[in-house]
Amino acid sequence: MAAQDPRTKYSNADFPQQEQPIPGLQKELNPKPDCGETSYTGHGRLKNYKMLVTGGDSAIGRAAAIAYAKEGADVAINYLPAEQVDAEEVQQVIEEAGRKAVLIPGDIRNEQFNYDLVEQAYAQLGGLDNVTLVAGHQQYRDSIKAFDTASFTDTFETNVYPIFWTVQKAIDYLEPGATITTTSSVQGYNPSPILHDYAASKAAIISLTKSLSEELGAKGIRVNCVAPGPFWSPLQISGGQPQSKIPTFGQKEVLGRAGQPVELSGVYVHLAAEESSYTTGQVYGVTGGTQLD
Ligand code: NAD
Ligand code: MG
Fold first, then answer.
1. What's the confidence (pLDDT) of residue 293?
2. Labelling 184: which of 144, 157, 281, 292 has CA 20 to 30 A away?
3. What atom in ligand 1 is closest to the CA of residue 183?
């Protein structure tokens, strides 16, 4: 038998309780998520592509950025200035893969920054074949009374508006064949009452993916979405989950454990690569078993 058992491919032991302020740093996370630094092998599926990844410093965005580089792409990553240390680790892996890494720190809640981000990525990479939108904000609250306007706004300004702003600018540069990949969540289908705003924002991302795919398909640009289940990441221990849920995070899934970011790499690569040329307006679930419906 050549294939690995998905239940035991990664540990399903309890995670240690730990808390970090927002944004959490991958460098401080214990254990470290596997983002494909050594475990992902490329096969030239994105040779000479130019890609922009938001949230590319850590966890899911890092896994996408690293896989893209190992598949032959030059990659610009965006992240918050406080995450510079994580971003530099990603830069090193991209450069070790023989590709160009462009670091563009900045806060995507700022409308103008999103336009500048796309322009800088295009200018510094010398083109743009894909925009991968992974950045996100998730803060749990105990009840609807505990949500306030500022936090609700923060969630939508991080998770939803930048898709609208980056795509508005990116379509000035994207040519037929280019792709846009968004990142939703199982929460977009199965909303949890401790994440009212986050879940609603992730449902909005699914809707935007579908409506954008219809408009941009006419220009030869494909738009698809990845919907992860529980993945071990800094977002979860910086307020994404109550501390009491951290040790057993992911264990209730059919496969019995949390996902590791590298287990999403293949889907992000697939949706940007030539092999998915007939796929647009779709949501790909990578959930450990929870159904998307
Ligand atoms: P993460 O903390 O590694 O990634 C989130 C990233 O968002 C940060 O690295 C940060 O760079 C970026 N970000 C947040 N606010 C920002 C801002 N104002 N400006 C610029 N960048 C900002 O955690 P992750 O779990 O890898 O999350 C990545 C994405 O995956 C998020 O959209 C999240 O909602 C989604 N997701 C995660 C899970 C999970 O279980 N980890 C499940 C479903 C969906
Ligand atoms: Mg980060």
1. 86
2. 144
3. 32
